[in-house]
C-alpha cells in the first residue's frame, strides 16, 4: 500500500498550489488505471487467442500490449522529475496513440479485419478522447485545446491513418454481425460523452475552486493566526516577565543542582538578599535547618506531578524564620519554578480564628439562651447545654430530631415555617410555641440567621414569664385605662405643644369633647392671661428635665369663656419613643370657694375665740378681784383690825399679833393658790405631775370619779406640746364638769414610735355631734391639735357619754 501511495504522490512536491497538486494526483491515478486496464486487456486477449489456438498472435499481441503498459507508466516518471505539464499532455495523447498503434500493428499482420474490431477501435478512441476534460483545467483554454487536438484528430481520421498502413476498412474490412459505427454516430457519442465529462469536470472544478478558496481563506487565516499567535506569545512573554517582576509573591527559578538562577523583586524583598547574592545560594540555604531535616529539597518528587503545593519554614538573610506556602512546578527545561507566599499574617489570623472559635464555643456552651444549628434538611447539627436543659433532651437525643419535633403542631398550622425570609442573610426574629420532651409547651422568642454554609443558627429564649408579665401589664394597662377614663380628675399627655391624649373628665372640665382637644388645640390656649407664659415655660422645663414635678395652679378658660381655677401636676415621660409630659388636672374652683368660706369661718371663729378669751380673762379678773375682795381683802382687814387693837391694848396685844400673823399666813396661802391656778411652768414641764395634780383637784372639788393611765415610752416631748396636751385635757375636764353629769371619767395617754394618743372618756349624758355648739371649748381644742398636725375625733350620742380621741404625729423632739 505504501508503494502505491508513493506512485500516486509522485511529483506532488513540485506542486505550487493545491489545485496543481490535485492535477498531478489525477494524472498519476489515470496512469495507474490505464496501466491496470492494459494489463487486464493483455490477460483477456491471451485467454481469447489461447482458445483460438493461435499462439503466434498471442505472443506478438502481448508484446505490443506490454510496451503499451510500460508507456502508460511514463507520466509517473515525468511528474517525479518535475515535468508535470508534459505528463498531462502525454497522458491526454498517449491512449489515442497507443490504441491506434496497437490496431495498426495488429492489422498489418492480418489479411482481413472484422468490422466489429473497427467499431471497437472507434469506441476506444471515443473513450480516451474525453480524458483531457478530466486531466486539464477548464480555466486554461489553450491547455485544454492542446490536450484535445491529438485525440480528436485520431478519432475523426482513424480510418485514413489506418489506410496509410494498408489497414483501412475499405481494404481489409470484412463485414460481420457486429454493429457498424459511422463517423456521425462516433461524433454524436463523442459529444454526449464529452458533455458528460465536461459537466462532471465543471462541477468538480467548481467545488474544487470553492474548496480552493476555502483553503486559501484558511491559509490566510492560519497566517493571521500564526501572526496573532506570535504576537500573543510575545505579549505572553512580556506579561510573564511583567508578572514575574511585579508579582506580589516571591518567584524563584532554580537549576537541576538546586542553585538559584533568577528571582523577582518580591523574593529579594522577602529574603533580604540582592540579585547577585541570590545567584550564589542554593535552595537549601534559604530553608530553616529543622525544616530541612524533616524534608530535603529533592527535584525528583516534582517529575511526575504538574505542580506540588506544600508549607515550609524558610530563613531570611538576617536569620529571621517565617512560614510560607510554596507552589512549585518543574519547567520543560528541567528547572524548578517556585511561587513563595509569606503566610505569617495568615498563620496569625488562623491562630486568632482558632482562639475566636474557642471563644465562640465557650460562648455557645455558656450562653444563657438555648442555641441550635440545623442543616438544610432541618435536622439538628449542634445544640448547646442550655438547649438540652430547656427542652429536656440529652445532646445525643437532640441530634436525632427534626425541627418540627420541637414545634407545637397546632401553632405550626396557624404559623407555618417560612425559610424564604432568611434568604437576605438578615436575622429574623419571631415568637413561637415550642414543645418539650415531656410534652409541655412554652412561649419562646427565636432569633434565626442563615449561616454562609446554608445552615440556620437559632437563639431561643423561654419568654413564658415575660408573656405572663406582659399579660399582667396588659391587664394593668386595661385597669389603668379604665381608671383613667373614669377618673374624677383630668388626665392628659402633651407632646410637641399639643394634647396627644385627654380623658373624658379633662374634656368635661373645659367643655370640649376629646376629639376637639387631641392634636388640635394648643396647650397654652386653655390658659388665661399671664398664665399662658407660665404654661409654656413649665412645658419647656419639664421636657428638658430641669423642672421638678411639683403641682401648681393657674386660671383656665372653658369653651364658653368662663374662667376656672385649675390645679396641674405634670411629669416627664416617653410617648411613642419621644419626650412627652403626662399629668393630671383638677378643677379646684369650688374647692377654692370652700377654702375661702372655711378661711372666713376660721377667721370668724378666731374672732369668737378672741372675744371668748377676752371674756374669760374679764371673768377671771372679776373672780380674782372677788377672791381678793371677799377673801384676801377680808383677811387683811381683820389683820389690820387686830393690829389696831394690839396697839391700844399692850396686854392683849401679843395675842392679837399672833392672830394677825395667822391671818397674814392665810392671805399668803390664798395668793399662792390663786397664782398656781393661773401660771404653769414654761420649761421642764412634768406632764405626768400636771395631769395627776389636775385629777386630784378635780376629784376633791367634784363628785365625778376620775382615773388616769399614763404610759408614754418616750418622755422627750416638746414642752409646748406637753403644755397644749395639758390645756386640752383641762378644757375637756371643764366641759365634763359643766355639761356631762358624768359619774366616771377615764384619761389615757399612750404612744408608739410614730404618734402620741390621748383618750378622754366619760359616762355622762352625751350629745349630738352633728348639732352646732354655741361654746368655743371644742373649737379651741381643735385649733390646738391642728397646730401640731394632729387629729381630733369625738364619738358621742345622747345618753351614751362622750369619747374624745386625739392623735398627734411625730411627738419626739428629734
> What is the overall shape?
rod-shaped
**On the 0-100 scale, what is the average pLDDT?**
78
- What is the alpha-carbon Rg in Å? 72 Å
Low-confidence stretches: none
The portion of residues forming beta strands comes to: 15-25%
Classification by helices and strands: alpha+beta
Number of strands: 22
Distance between the first and last residues' Cα: 138 Å
Helix proportion range: 40-55%
Number of helices: 27
Largest sheet, in brief, is: 5 strands, antiparallel
Strand order of the largest sheet: 4-3-7-6-5
Walk me through the structure:
By secondary structure, this protein is of the alpha+beta class. It is 54% helix and 18% strand. The protein has 27 helices and 22 strands. It has a five-stranded antiparallel sheet with strand order 4-3-7-6-5. A five-stranded antiparallel sheet has the order 9-8-12-11-10. Strands 14-13-17-16-15 form a five-stranded antiparallel sheet, sandwiched between helices. Strand 19 and strand 20 (755-762) form a beta hairpin. The chain is rod-shaped and about 245 Å long.
Task: Give me some keywords for this one.
alpha+beta; 5-stranded antiparallel β-sheet; 27 helices; 22 strands; 18% strand
Brief summary:
With 814 residues, the chain is an alpha+beta fold. A hairpin with a 5-residue loop joins strand 3 (250-254) and strand 4.
